[in-house]
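Format is chain and fold; as here:
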Amino acid sequence: MTNSREVRLTAIPDGLPTPDHFTIAETTLPAPGEGEVLVRNRYFQVFPAVRTLFGGGVEGAPFPGIKAGEPLIGVAIGEVVDGPLQGTLVSHWQGWREYAVVPAEQTTALSDVLPDPILHLSQGLTAYTAFARGAEIRKGDTVFISGGAGGVGSLAAQYAKQLGAGRVVGSTGSAWKAERMRTELGYDDVLPRGEAPDGIDVFLDNVGGEQLTTAVTKANDSARFVLVGALSSQLAPDHAGITAFTEVDLLQLITKRITVRGLSPKDCWPAQAEWEQRFSEWLRAGEVSFPHTKISGIENAPRALHELLTGQHVGSVVVEL
């Protein structure tokens, strides 16, 4: 038997969650059964879309809803300490806890292509798949990224440049984030929320809402839109975050021949090996960086989520155990 701590949701939030909506609970894990492994987690990712799970989740999504009294979930990296592949570093979806008993088939052994295991908790795979296989960036494209300072956006501008984009523009509602986006993250220009550049060839949308509405009006002929998030609803205090309705001018979509594609995690997994190789090459050459904040201790995880949801970080947020 293994003692472990985990973060549990104590009550469904009415609005954005605060640290008071969570508790750090002690639990005892059984020894892994047949086909299971015991993983000692090293890191887990804090991501804003977890808020959607508090409202019951979204039908068809790969992640279940979270009820009051249940532990949170998210991508984690840990070492198998009991069961098949003992000693192997793996990723899995039972984050927000120190130890986890996981079906072996639900773990993925980490390759050594990336120079640091924590890089597997970046959201670079989403950004890469959106550009390399979704929108298929062409040389000289003007790329617009909504929510450009988040986990996806902070890597997306850098990737876009490596894949041949001519100009990359992002949006944020924060002046200090805009400065970092221009000086560190590869953006040529940064616009306030709700605005979009004139002439868009590729749009990577993390936000939805009015930013998607506006981008349609500014799109070039045959523009390619890839939708990966809906933060406009997921971060709205008066919204449960399980739906995200947006007004779009269909005639603009038709006359401009705009392609709109939703991208889910299921679309990204086939590109994993390709992304790892290219990300590693770019990192080693100093052509891209991994913007992130590392927070130590599971007891600080609820605060980390609150800070992320209220816009206090750039890039990914990772809890180190």
In short: The longest strand covers residues 36-46.
